[in-house]
Each structure stands twice: as C-alpha cells, then as structure tokens.
Write a structure and sequence with these properties.
The chain has no helices and 10 strands. The strands form 2 sheets. The protein has a 6-stranded mixed β-sheet, with no helix packed on it. A hairpin with a 6-residue loop joins strand 5 and strand 6.
C-alpha cells in the first residue's frame, strides 16, 4: 500500500522559509518521479514542482520558480520542498504524490502552510 506522509508545515510571516518533507513507503521509491501539489482554500489543486527518479531533473510552476527547491533523498525514501520568500498567496495545504507533473494520483494527508502578511 502506497503511503505518503507530509510534514513541516506551519504558520509563518511573509518572507520566511519552510522545509516540507514527504516520507514515502509501500512502493519502490527510487523508480518513480515525485511531485508537490497544493490546494488553497476554495481553489482547485495546483501542481507546483516535480523531480525525476534520480533527482537530476526538476520542474517548477511559474508561481514558485526561483523561490522553491525540490529535492529527494533516495536512501531515505523522502522528498523535500524548500520554500523561501514565502508570500500570503502560498497559503495552502501541501501534498506530495507520485509523478512529475499534474495534479493526479494519490496524495498524502497534506501539511498546512499559512503565511501571514
């Protein structure tokens, strides 16, 4: 059974940083690309970043490019999202999922990120 457990969210001020983690289990992590998706209150899901299985290719939406960095540790079956220069519009529940792009697939339970102005 695929399990994805996100952590690291919180309440921060504009301009702050957070590092999200996603611990994966139940599948061969090293074979799959991974992604982060977020969903703001009252809005649909938004794909924001993806990474290929080796970590050598990374993809970002325009909304986070230059501020967020995705990475992975295949030895620990974990994918990360370093978020810098946070803005109020980054407020959302953040989910990780299998795949490089798009919002499809199974998500974890999510971690709440709230950025106050």
């Amino acid at each position: 059974e695929v399990q994805l457990v996100e952590s690291g969210g919180g309440l921060v001020h504009t301009g702050s940083s957070l590092r999200l983690s996603c611990a994966a289990s139940g599948f061969t992590f090293t074979l799959y690309p991974m992604k982060w998706v977020r969903q703001a209150p009252g809005k649909g899901p938004e794909w924001i970043s993806g990474i290929n299985s080796s970590g050598g290719s990374k993809y970002y939406s325009d909304s986070v490019k230059g501020r967020f960095t995705i990475s992975r540790d295949n030895a620990k079956n974990t994918v990360f999202l370093q978020m810098n220069s946070l803005k109020p519009e980054d407020t959302a529940v953040y989910y990780c999922a299998i795949g490089a792009t798009g919002t499809g697939g199974s998500w974890g339970q999510g971690t709440q990120v709230t950025v106050s102005s």
